[in-house]
Amino acid sequence: MTDFKSEVIAAGGEGIAACYQCGTCSGGCPTVSAMDFTPRQIIRMVNLGMRDRVLSSKTIWLCASCYQCQVRCPREVKITEVMAALKSMAMKEGYNSSIAKPRAASFYRNFNEIVANLGRQFEPLLLLKTTLGSRESITSKLGYLLKNAPFGITLMKKGKLPFKPEKISGSEEVRKIFENVAKMEAGE
Length: 188
Fold this sequence. Notes:
Layout: H1 4-10, H2 24-28, H3 39-47, H4 51-55, H5 59-62, H6 68-72, H7 79-92, H8 104-118, H9 123-132, H10 138-157, H11 171-186
Helix pairs in contact: 8-9, 8-11, 9-10
């Protein structure tokens, strides 16, 4: 059986062993104040093999994937890819049911599904699928959608949010990329 650190490296978390815990990643993170562990702490816990604490943390779901940490890292640790690998591992192993943000796992799953199908993102569908697919009560889901409806309508009126989805040319190529990634993850 492989250790947790090796699994994370194999899933796309290259370079984590190079981290010397300077804290630059955490110092530049725009969402660190909402996290239960800083990015630096997550990297350290991965290196120590703390699988359960890492995969059940809300930090991996709150990563904005802005690359601020990765760009600033003096050791060129691919922290954003580490967080993405950890999200994938957490979803596969069922850890997403205990995260603090109820729509985070639904967002992550649906974002990728929409891009795979259309070749681009369609925000109204993402909002609906993410909210309706979350583990919240139906009352919370409806309240969230109703609260955000006026803003969405304003954006649509100004032409900032499309009313219907459009596929890009070459969307089949994008779908093939997602299919190949799924095959690689399954070990095929």
